[in-house]
């Protein structure tokens, strides 16, 4: 079953006059994704404005990563259309930055951090002149500094910790100054101070470069002050709206089909799920658990 979203405006909610006149960075129309008989989402209409920060929430297997894969041109829609930066989604464009869900890299990997970050520029037309090479090196250095990875940029990736590898993935996604930034749980395995730093960098990319940010997360609190809208997916149903419109007891109870309480405590969201028949808490995603 698919429940159409109740959106505050049709498809997109422009957040300022400038955004109002800009074409959307991402546009989905009537989008459906099915794997065999299983439909992850259907009837998804969504415009994301340049500079907008969209948090994507939902339980395991609800189709969050699959949506990012559609936008990367890696997964075709079953129905509907998808445009990214004004063109049908296609793979290999430097206009889209991607921070993938963290996977530990092979301990034997000898590629270095600075090489990994440089790969983020490979969609650009750099030419072979000295000036282009100098500019390329300058950008890589700047991105490494932004995530505080300069000290280990020459170390083989396989020898780095999960958090150090993750900061390099963030630098790789930001180095091309993308129009659309797709982030799949980018804060996992980062300590609190680097969570803050990476969140700030991503928000800065949205604000200063007018990049649209799609941020998949199981916990909205670390980014709550940055979020313009939430897309919440549960078992084929979804809601799109501001955090207040989506992250409330009535909406989440309807999405999960069980009683859920959401409270704001000191600027943070706390969610409490009803007990299931088996005496276990339903696994509710989004905020801290009561
Ligand atoms: N190529 C594929 N073929 C068939 N099924 C797939 C494929 N890719 C993903 N799936 C299934 O689709 C569902 C959604 O997967 P997806 O990774 O998008 O979920 P998710 O919301 O990102 O989950 P998580 O929170 O666990 O990362 C899962 O049940 C997954 O097994």
TrEMBL record:
Q: What InterPro entries does this protein map onto?
A: AAA+_ATPase, ABC_transporter-like_ATP-bd, ABC_transporter-like_CS, Metal_Ion_Import_ABC, P-loop_NTPase
Instruction: Supply the Pfam families for this chain.
Output: ABC_tran
Which GO molecular function annotation, any one, does this entry have?
ATP hydrolysis activity
Query: Start and end of every ABC transporter domain?
Result: 26-260
Keywords linked to the UniProt accession: ATP-binding, Nucleotide-binding, Transport
Stretches the record annotates as Disordered: 1-26
Top-level taxon of origin = Bacteria
Show the Gene3D superfamilies listed in the entry. Answer: P-loop containing nucleotide triphosphate hydrolases (3.40.50.300)
The record, for PANTHER family, names: METAL TRANSPORT SYSTEM ATP-BINDING PROTEIN TM_0124-RELATED
- Family assignment? Belongs to the ABC transporter superfamily.
Indicate what this protein is called per its UniProt record.
Zinc/manganese transport system ATP-binding protein
Q: Which organism is it from?
A: Haloactinomyces albus
């Amino acid at each position: 079953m698919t429940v159409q979203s109740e959106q505050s405006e049709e498809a997109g909610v422009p957040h300022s006059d400038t955004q109002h006149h800009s074409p959307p960075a991402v546009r989905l129309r009537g989008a459906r994704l099915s794997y065999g008989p299983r439909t992850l989402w259907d009837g998804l209409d969504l415009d994301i404005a340049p500079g907008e920060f969209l948090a994507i929430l939902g339980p395991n297997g609800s189709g969050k990563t699959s949506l990012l894969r559609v936008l990367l041109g890696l997964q075709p829609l079953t129905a509907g259309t998808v445009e990214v930066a004004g063109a049908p989604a296609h793979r290999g464009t430097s206009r889209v930055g991607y921070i993938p869900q963290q996977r530990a890299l092979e301990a034997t990997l000898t590629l270095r951090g600075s090489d990994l970050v440089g790969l983020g520029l490979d969609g650009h037309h750099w030419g072979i002149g000295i000036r282009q090479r100098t500019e390329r090196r300058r950008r890589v250095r700047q991105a490494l500094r932004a995530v505080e990875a300069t000290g280990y940029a020459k170390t083989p990736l396989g020898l780095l910790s999960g958090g150090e590898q993750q900061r390099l993935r963030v630098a790789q996604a930001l180095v091309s100054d993308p129009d659309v930034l797709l982030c799949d749980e980018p804060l996992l395995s980062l300590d609190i101070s680097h969570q803050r730093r990476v969140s700030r960098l991503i928000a800065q990319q949205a604000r200063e470069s007018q990049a649209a940010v799609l941020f998949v997360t199981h916990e909205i609190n670390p980014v709550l002050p940055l979020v313009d809208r939430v897309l919440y997916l549960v078992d084929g149903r979804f809601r799109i709206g501001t955090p207040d419109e989506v992250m409330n007891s009535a909406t989440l109870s309807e999405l999960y089909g069980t009683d859920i309480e959401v409270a704001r405590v000191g600027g943070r969201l706390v969610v409490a799920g009803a007990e299931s028949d088996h005496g276990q808490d339903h696994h509710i995603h989004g905020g801290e658990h009561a």
